[in-house]
Specification:
Blueprint lengths: L19 H9 L3 H12 L4 H13 L4
Helix pairs in contact: 1-2, 2-3
């Protein structure tokens, strides 16, 4: 038996800005809403704590 390996990719179907949260949601098997909420909460204290990780993930994670 071969197990399908779930790879981390930015989503084209479930994309709001760059598909990062959609890709993370698909990879971990949960709703992308929770990742979007986490990035939004991280943006509240001044933007940098939420914006920098999102941009890094945008650059590092390949598009599907």
């Amino acid at each position: 038996m071969t197990a399908k390996r779930n790879t981390l990719r930015r989503s084209r179907r479930d994309s709001v800005v760059a598909g990062v949260c959609g890709g993370l949601g698909a990879f971990f098997g949960i709703s992308p809403f929770w990742f979007r909420l986490a990035f939004l909460i991280a943006l509240i204290p001044g933007g940098i704590p939420g914006l920098v990780p999102y941009i890094v993930l945008w650059v590092v994670i390949p598009k599907e």
